[in-house]
Amino acid sequence: MASWTATLATLALCLTVAAAVDIWNVDQLEQAKKGQDQVIRVRNINVPAGKSLDFQGLDGRTIEFHGRVTFGYAEWSGHLIIIKGKNMKIKGMPGHLIDGEGHRWWDKCGGNCGKKKPFMIYTQLEQSTVDGLKIKNTPAWCFAINQCNNVHYSNIDIDNKDGHSKGGHNTDGFDVHKSRNIRIYNSKVNNQDDCLAINSGWDIVFENNVCEGGHGIAVAVGGYDVNEAKNILIKNCKVIKNNIGIRVKTLLNGKGIVDGVTFDNVELKDISEIGIVIIGNYLNSGPRGEPTGGIPIKNLNINNVRGNVLHNGTNIQINVAPGSPSGWIWKSNVWGGRKNPNCKGTPGNLNNPCNW
């Protein structure tokens, strides 16, 4: 009986080992896609210049990152990593690092000028999880979350702090577009642009995250093929040494809707420019002209957003088209900077928070 039990244990171990495959280069990854291994372990890969580490066609599989992943240098507008599929598990294992070595592209221009810079990671996933990734020095934007559905992103560390002194720009942490039922939590971003930018999406939660050094947490709607953001919850987050704390910005002359955005228990610390921004005249080059109401901001809930702005900054800025917003609830305590006497467009049910 003992011998039979030992035989079964050995067989189980063999099956477990056989279910995983190690890959050390891009060619091996293409071979792994044709196999039946349920776990693909990426180990110390250097991806050739101008090519993507492409995880498509791997529905139901687990991808583990081990060791250091690096990329050859090329000026191009593709994606260094593509993860696309259903029922996938993406895991960062202890000691791994996905290193974009972004200093090779950084020129203080980001995506606006200068060198062409690739996106770091493109995800188009359903019923999947992305957990524990450690990412350093992205050439520009880090996560593109595009047309995703029912996906959790957790315990992710995006470390672009070198970009503060070496010319990093547009190094967004998480950019969300046309996605539904997304949860991003227990993560850290140190960068030179938005920690989170939601361009469009539904039922999105951003919780227990720390944003440092960048441009804050943004719901930024307008200028895309879908201009709708509904049921957005940003909760229990810290925004540290960013130029902006939190903001909702809609495109000048844009069409769409923002409905049901809640910022709950968000702590601001040492914000340099503006603590809370709600505007309806956004352009990529900066706010301009009188706000337009084609993208109304409805049911905005600012609850326990608190913290300090540096003395040369402004505590709160509101500039939306009168009559376009509705159903706002506001409870904030932002101090240290100047009060803005020119806030306008606040719904009639609410005393102007700029004067608090």
Question: What do you see in this structure?
Answer:
The structure is a single chain. This protein has helices spanning 2-18, 26-34, 163-166, and strands spanning 20-23, 39-43, 46-47, 53-56, 62-66, 68-71, 79-86, 89-92, 97-99, 119-131, 134-136, 143-146, 149-154, 157-159, 174-177, 179-185, 188-190, 196-198, 201-207, 210-212, 217-221, 228-240, 244-251, 257-271, 274-282, 297-298, 301-309, 314-319, 329-335. It is elongated. It has a 29-stranded parallel beta sheet that branches. The protein is mainly beta and 356 residues long. It has one domain: 3 Solenoid (Pectate Lyase C-like), CATH 2.160.20. This is endo-polygalacturonase. GO terms for molecular function: polygalacturonase activity.
Radius of gyration: 22 Å
Any idea what the CATH superfamily is called?
Single-stranded right-handed beta-helix, Pectin lyase-like
Summing up helix and strand content along with how strands pair, one would put the structural category as: mainly beta
Helix content estimate: under 10%
Signal peptide: 1-20
Family: Belongs to the glycosyl hydrolase 28 family.
InterPro entries: Glyco_hydro_28, Glycosyl_hydrlase_28, PbH1, Pectin_lyas_fold, Pectin_lyase_fold/virulence
Pfam families: Glyco_hydro_28
